[in-house]
Specification:
This protein is of the alpha+beta class. It has a domain of 248 residues: Amidase signature (AS) enzymes (Alpha-Beta Complex). Helix content is 36%, strand content 17%. Strands 1-3-2-8-10-9-16-17-13-11-12 form an 11-stranded mixed β-sheet, with helices on both faces. A hairpin with a 2-residue loop joins strand 6 and strand 7. The model has no long low-confidence stretch (mean pLDDT 96).
Length: 481
C-alpha cells in the first residue's frame, strides 16, 4: 500500500497494520514535510518531535508484539490551548508565557492510550476569541489555499491538516473554533454533544471538570468524516480520570444509507447576511439530495426559536464563560465599549459580561426550554444542514476583531455576526459536523455543517461520510499535492 501525505488516517493505520510502513517511517514522512512546508504556514508552533520519535518506536515494538490499539503509531497534533505535560498552554496570552502543563488533559491521555504519536501543538488566536490563528507569542498562521488569508480560528491547526503536515488533530469549539477553520480549509470537523468529550485540561478553563461550562467542547478535525468519527470514539467518555459509576454511550448513527435520512435545510434568515456563493452551495446541496434521501425539507426554525433572540442568548452566555477571572477594571471597560456601539449583539455581549450568578442560572433554564424544542425537531428530522459561517476564509485582518466590519452581499456586518451559524448547535449542546462543499469563484473552500440530535453524534458524522462517498473527498490545495 502506498502512503502519502494526503492519505487518510484510516489508510495510514491500515498500512501500519499490514506492515507496509512502520510508525517511525510514517512519523519521519510527516516531520520532513513539516520542516519543508510549515515555515510559510506557521501552524505547528510547539514541537515535541523527540518524544514523538520515542513514541513511534514504542508503537513499532507494540505492533511487533501483537498489541492492537485504535490509533497505534498514527501522528497527530493538539491545539495549543489543550494541556500536554511539559508544554505551554497559553492561548496566546502574554502572562501565560512561562506556563507548562503539569499533566496531559484527559483527552490527550486517551489519545496516547490509544497509541497516537503526538508531534506537537498548533496555533491559536489570543484568548481563543477570534476566527484567525494569530497571537503575540507565536505569530500568524496562513491558509495553504491562499497565504494572504486566515486558516480560521481558534483551532488554526486546520492549515497543517489541509497542507498534509498531519492527518488528524484535537481541537476545541465554543463558537465554531473547529467548524469554521474546517470550512476555511476544506476539511471535516466535529463539535461533540455537550458532555460527550472531556473539556478539562484546557485554557481558558481549568484542569478539573466544570459542569457550568456547557457551551464549549473539545473535538476532532481531519481530512475525512470517518477519520473524525474514529478519533471521537477514542476521546469520548466521562470527564474523570478514574473509575466512574456511569458512562456515556452515544447512539449509533440512525441510518447507514443516504436514502434513509430525513434532511432539513435551514432557510437563511433575512436579518443576517450570507455570502452568495455559500447560499448557492447550500441550495445546490439541497437540490442534489432531493430524490437521494427519504425526505428533504426547507425550514425556518421558527418552531424551535426566535433565532435572533436565540443568538443573543448564546452571545450572553458565551461572554459569561470567556470573561471568567477577568479583573473588574477590564470587565467594566469591555461593558462600556460594547454599550457605546449601540448594537443589539454588542448589548447581548454586555449582558453576559455584567451577569450575576442568578442570571446565568436563569439562562441555563431557558437553554433547557430550547433543548426541548430541538428534541421535538429531531423527532421529525435526522439532520439539519446550515452554513458553517457567513463567508469563506477572509484576508488577514489589520485591526482587532472589535473594530472590524464586513461587507457581505451588500450588507454591512459586525464581525461577531460570524458566530451565528455555529451558535445554532453550541447553545443547545448539539453535535455538529462541518464538511466541505467545493470551492468558490476565487478558489477558496466552502463549507456547510450537519447538526444532529443530542448524544447522537454519529448521525451527522455518518451523514457527512455518506456525502463524502457520494460527491468526493478531500481536495489538496494547489501546490501542496
Amino acid at each position: 500500500m502506498s502512503i502519502g501525505a494526503f492519505s487518510t488516517a484510516f489508510q495510514m493505520l491500515r498500512a501500519l497494520g499490514e506492515r507496509a510502513i512502520s510508525a517511525r517511517e510514517l512519523l519521519e514522512l510527516h516531520l520532513a514535510r513539516i520542516e519543508r512546508i510549515d515555515g510559510a504556514l506557521n501552524s505547528i508552533v510547539v514541537r515535541d518531535f523527540e518524544r514523538a520519535t520515542r513514541d513511534a518506536a514504542t508503537a513499532d515494538e507494540m505492533r511487533a508484539g501483537g498489541v492492537a490499539k485504535p490509533l497505534l503509531g498514527l501522528p497527530m497534533t493538539v491545539k495549543e490551548s489543550i494541556d500536554m505535560q511539559g508544554l505551554p498552554s497559553t492561548a496566546g496570552v502574554g502572562f501565560r508565557t512561562s506556563h507548562r502543563a503539569s499533566r496531559d488533559a484527559l483527552t490527550v491521555r486517551r489519545l496516547r492510550a490509544a497509541g497516537a504519536v503526538i508531534v506537537g501543538k498548533t496555533n491559536v488566536c489570543t484568548w481563543l476569541a477570534d476566527y484567525i490563528g494569530d497571537n503575540p507569542l507565536f505569530g500568524r498562521t496562513n491558509n495553504p489555499w491562499n497565504l494572504e488569508h486566515t486558516s480560521g480560528g481558534s483551532t488554526a491547526g486546520s492549515a497543517a491538516l489541509a497542507a498534509g503536515l498531519i492527518p488528524l488533530e484535537l481541537g476545541s469549539d465554543l463558537a465554531g473554533s473547529i467548524r469554521v477553520p474546517a470550512a476555511f480549509c476544506g476539511l471535516w470537523g466535529h463539535k461533540p454533544s455537550c458532555g460527550l468529550v472531556p473539556n478539562s485540561g484546557h485554557f481558558p478553563g481549568a484542569e478539573l471538570p466544570n459542569p457550568g461550562t456547557v457551551l464549549a467542547a473539545q473535538g476532532p478535525h481531519g481530512r475525512s468524516a470517518a477519520d473524525v468519527a474514529m478519533c471521537l470514539q477514542v476521546i469520548s467518555g466521562p470527564d474523570v480520570d478514574m473509575d466512574a459509576a456511569w458512562e456515556v454511550k452515544p447512539r449509533a448513527a440512525r441510518h447507514q444509507v443516504l436514502a434513509d435520512f430525513r434532511v432539513a435545510f435551514i432557510e437563511p434568515p433575512e436579518w443576517i447576511a450570507l455570502d452568495p456563493e455559500i447560499r448557492f452551495a447550500l441550495e445546490n446541496c439541497r437540490k442534489e439530495l432531493v430524490g437521494r434521501c427519504k425526505s428533504v425539507e426547507s425550514v425556518d426554525l421558527s418552531e424551535v426559536a426566535d433565532l435572533k433572540k436565540y443568538f443573543h442568548q448564546f452571545r450572553s452566555m458565551m461572554n459569561v464563560l470567556i470573561s471568567i477571572g477577568w479583573p473588574a477594571e477590564k470587565r467594566h471597560q469591555a461593558i462600556a465599549t460594547k454599550l457605546a456601539s449601540r448594537d443589539e449583539l454588542a448589548a447581548a455581549d454586555a449582558r453576559g459580561l455584567a451577569a450575576s450568578g442568578s442570571e446565568y442560572l436563569m439562562w441555563l433554564g431557558e437553554r433547557e426550554a430550547y433543548r426541548m424544542k430541538w428534541r421535538e425537531f429531531f423527532n421529525r428530522h435526522d439532520v439539519l444542514i446550515t452554513p458553517t459561517t457567513l463567508l469563506p476564509a477572509f484576508a488577514h485582518p489589520k485591526v482587532p476583531a472589535s473594530e472590524r466590519r464586513m461587507q457581505i452581499d451588500g450588507q454591512d456586518c459586525g464581525f461577531d455576526d460570524l458566530s451565528f451559524y455555529p451558535a445554532l448547535a453550541s447553545l443547545a449542546g448539539l453535535p455538529a459536523t462541518a464538511f466541505p462543499v467545493g470551492l468558490n469563484s476565487v478558489g477558496l473552500p466552502l463549507g456547510l455543517q450537519a447538526i444532529g440530535p443530542f448524544l447522537e453524534d454519529y448521525t451527522p458524522l455518518k451523514f457527512a461520510d455518506l456525502l463524502e462517498r457520494e460527491f468526493g473527498g478531500f481536495r489538496p490545495p494547489p501546490g501542496y499535492e
